[in-house]
Amino acid sequence: MNKHVTGTLAAGALLAALAPSASAAAPATSDLQRDADAIHATGATGVLAEMQTDHDSRVARAGVADLKTRQAVPWNSYYRIGSDTKTFTSTVALQLVGEGKLRLTDTVEKWLPGVVKGHGNDGRKITVKNLLRQTSGLNDYVAIQLGDGSDLTPEKYKENRFRSSTPSEQVAAAMTEPPQWVPDAANPAEETHWGYSNTNYVLAGMIIEKVTGHPWEQEVHDRIIEPLGLRHTMTPAGSSYVPQPSATAYTRFPGRTDLTDTSVATGGWADGGIISTTHDHGTFLRALMSGKLLKPAQLAQMKQTVKVTDWVSAPGVRYGLGIAWRPAGNCGGGIWFHGGTSLGVVSESGVTPDGRRAANVAVSTFRVGGDGQEAQDRASLRLVEAALCPTSR
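^ thats the sequence. predicted structure below, dont judge the formating
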């Protein structure tokens, strides 16, 4: 199951100030607008993109916010950022490491005794670093809850869009299957076998709560959202609604040619639950890479990567602790990013290694395993890279 499908269901219903304000952003440059139009041309209903630098912010939009009203995509649209949430969660965990309250070599069993067990799963052999770097071998609870995919229908979406499962239930689902592998017993934290699993970040969120004694949402707010002034970023817990203004989120389910409005959907948690805007998300990424959120040692730990073999849309990817790297020769060799998908929304982003430039794009169409999605994803990646590396065209 690819990154976009797992990110979707982590935040879906089928089971998951560093720059001027957005209102002060300048109109799009011709390049940014052309790249936004190129995403729309792949069949996406609506596109909103933003590029930030130390000095200004540029925005572009294409398509419509809603196929019925035909209104333009609002400049300050809220949207679910899906698995881009994982970078926030990893940042909080690494802050705790920097404070001496948590160690990357701590086992899951130390903090969550008896939670990871059964069918060969063993929390004594998995460290915090394995969770954050996706090298634990644990199965993705999303894939297990989804089963054979028969629930990927408009009817099942409408039936389940207000239902949610607890973190404990999600982990329990992952424990019903044997692990894909077990980290190297001699040095589990340095395991390099990689596999994307939302279960890792549910466990990370649970550990954050155990270490701090506070809800994951509170730690994200107190450590990231409030200090950076991200007034349009939130952790909505089990709410199925996205604040307005927002573009309608459209999903094309397998075997269908029509689009379903999937704007109302239960969100994820520490693996994919944050709602934000292109401006706030870019502000977070720039703060992270410029060293405003992590101590130098922890930022260096975040950037310790392992090879990824199945990130289809972006070859050459390496995954760190909650953030990924991909080659981009005109940006100091590469850029940092993650990406996430919710029902009807694909979030793509990137930031230069020095945090000087960030680019974010929200596309309000997701075609589950269907024609056009791969082209849409490639066009979004091109927009991000061109915005970060202006000479890369």
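The chain has one domain: 3-392.
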